[in-house]
Amino acid sequence: MQQLASYQRKAFLKDHPPVFARALLGSTGEAQTLLAGTVLGLKNGKQYAYAGAEMEAHSILAEDVTVAPSGDQYALTYVHAAVTAAELIWDDSVTATQQQAALAALRLKGIHGAEA
């Protein structure tokens, strides 16, 4: 994944008015910084950086946020938007096939233009 120190924000959001939702980002046991544009997956009622088959793609992070190692963090996410799929941020472990499946799931949830 991108790191905050070397990060240059890309324009992943298109000009269609987005719809936001407040989401609970789950702690993974270590501090992690998630950047706006990160694809999130839902697991056990919390959202995490999408990591493939073990979770369902759910939304896209709307702001940069650091999740502490010992606590969850609330953040704004896009639940309806038009995006440029090539500019979204994925966890390094996500394969191209898993990305395509996640993009299809996001389209069903209202995140449009999510074709690679």
Strand content: 25-35%
What is the average per-residue confidence, as pLDDT, rounded to a whole number? 87
Global outline: globular
Report the biggest beta sheet as strand number plus sense, adding barrel if it closes.
6 strands, mixed
Structural class call reads mainly beta
Count of alpha/pi helices: 1
Count of beta strands: 8
Helical content stands at 10-25%
**Topology as a string of helices (H) and strands (E):** EEEEEEEHE
> Which residues form runs of ≥5 with pLDDT under 50?
none
CA radius of gyration: 13 Å
Distance between the terminal alpha carbons, to the nearest Å?
18 Å
What features would you describe in this structure?
By secondary structure, the chain is mainly β. It contains 1 helix and 8 strands. It has one helix at 96-109, and strands spanning 19-25, 32-34, 39-43, 46-49, 56-61, 65-67, 73-82, 111-112. A hairpin with a 2-residue loop joins β3 (39-43) and β4. The longest helix is centred in the C-terminal third of the chain and has 14 residues, at 96-109. It is globular.
